[in-house]
Amino acid sequence: MTRADVCAAAIADAFKDDGEIFASPMGLLPMLGVRLAKLTSNPDLVISDGESLFLAGVPPLTALGDVVEGWIPFRKVFDVVAYGKRHVMMGATQVDRHGNQNISAIGDWARPKRQLLGSRGAPGNTVNNRTSYWVPKHSPRVFVERVDIVSGVGPKRAAEAGPAAARFNDIHRIVTNLAVLDVKGTDDTVRLLSLHPGVSADDVRSATGFEIELPDDLPTTREPTMEEQVIIREVLDPKGLRFKEVPAE
Amino acid sequence: MTKGPRDKRMSIDEVVGELRDGMTVGIGGWGPRRKPMALVRAVLRSELKDLTIVSWGGADVGLLARAGKIRKLVYAFVSLDSVPLEPNFQKARQEGTIPELVELDEGMFQTGLRAAAQRLPFLPMRAGLGSDVLVNQPWIQTVTSPYDGPDGRQEELVAVPALPLDVALVHLNRADRHGNATYLGPDPYFDDLFAMAAERTYVSCEQIVDTAGLTVDTPVQRLLLSRMMVAGVVETPNGAHFTTCTPDYERDERFQRAYAAAAGRSDEDWAAFSARFLEGDEATYQAAVQAFQEEQA
Q: Given A111, A119, A167, which is nearest B76 (Cβ)?
């Protein structure tokens, strides 16, 4: 059992109680986790090919086609964001103590040290539908006291921006290569929910650039079941693409 | 005696000849998908300057930025997807060579085009609230709903400003000579919105066909543009290269890697890429791409 498999199962768990909504994973491990959830805990999830088609089946990560059950071009993605029946798991170049996320640029926005993607859909996602983040390399460079630019809005900022911003703000999980976190700590701060097997609280503390809230009783992230391990290895990712994001020890 | 509608066929250079310094130009497609690259390449070769570019950006934005054509950029992202960070855009941002920037959420961008298409000054939206989009664009205002919300309170929403365009440039798979145009790939993107947000829209396409030919092999629902939205049509085979134009062709990943590598290295590397591919006309470009593909094969 590898760390990547633990991460996939933790991501799957983030989607297990979502019911019949559009699961939008950005990146490889999120896609693996969502498809794992659809094959196990939540068969009602609506998934896409990441481009413009809803897929009726649950194909392997590298498959090109499957039975189509709907059409989801970019314009309809925006419709579903506003409709709200969507859970997106995005990446994050920075996440801060209050669960704000940055994918726009590093440094001063007017003249950045390093230009990244731009805000993309993060501002709209975070005030409209459930949003989670996937961080493949938990480090103090990612988990910072304050993000340089707020692309994705955390619950405290949303509350400060007023009821229209807070009404549908729902930052659900932050899954990393070390742990599972959420933003339901004191004063809407990032809180540790579980440590992956073999990871200590000190490992997470030293890899986090702010004081992170630790519950007294800290559980271990569950290991994937035998069924899940077989699905991951034999069905969804036989080529082991997941190890490019989370290397096998 | 009945006369048919106007024949709007033009050349690439005639389209670019309609543009003026300082214009606001919307570019259709999405990131590295179905971009009107033949028209963008012609803008690169022109004397045009001080353009406001409105685009969900890919290499169109990167190339125009590198050529110093952009005075103001309205964007939500600039990405080549398989190369996530566009190197020419990164360079322009980090060196501060684009004087004015408007970074929006990608849904706000659609709402801005929709407002312009509906001749409205703004449309309300939730996206942007609480984010630094509103901090970095302090001119974007909020508006309070005149109606009570479910909790009895009146919500304060973003008044997304309209994004009116002087000109829209879009690329579709097929068009007729009058400007009716259809996409054949999986996604229309937002080319109809760009067209309706613009004073004038120029469509490049893979192939100009008879009007009857537009619906021979594809459903009528894919006729995205009506001629009433279109000022000119130009046939530019492989004109979206190196972006996708599904099903006519997919993205040229090998060429995109070569582009990104040249853009990310020294000025000399970029000058060599530019001399090989970008300084001649469209036919010269296509011949150079073919030679590149043969030597890479």
A: A119
